[in-house]
Design brief:
With about 170 residues, the chain is an alpha+beta fold. Helix content is about 60%, strand content about 15%.
Amino acid sequence: MDRAQKEAVVAELGQIFADSGVIVVAHYAGLTVAEMQDFRGRMREAGGSVRVAKNRLAKIALEGTQCESISGLLNGMTVLAYSEDPVAAAKVAQSFAKDNDKLVILGGAMGETALDPAGVKAVAAMPSRDELIAQIASCIGAPASNIAGAIGAPASNIASILSTIEDKAA
């Protein structure tokens, strides 16, 4: 890799570190190509990405960023999982690590906050952005649904009473 290619990788990694809502660092020693492709596929479905880069170049890219604190995790065969959604990458990495013990989560970063493995697990347990939007929408829609039910209830009660009276009369 010549100097220009290294500079391009550092610039790309710098952009990743700046734009990501969460970054998870893990060791991947022993993963087969098929397992790594499965991990990448799961991450892509969740809206995240996986990047393997030289630790030295990643450390250079981390200098001066808000997630500079994770540079100590970049030792050995490391992989970076990241996403704009603050929990997607953590969820996928945690799920994959649970299924495959060759992926060992070392920690990560969420903005300026450094995460240890327990922190990544806690972030993974949080609802995703889409789940939160769905919860908010249901909370907003619930009162309208209750009002519609309350307005329609007297009419249905009257209809059932009339039906009962009709049945008795016949």
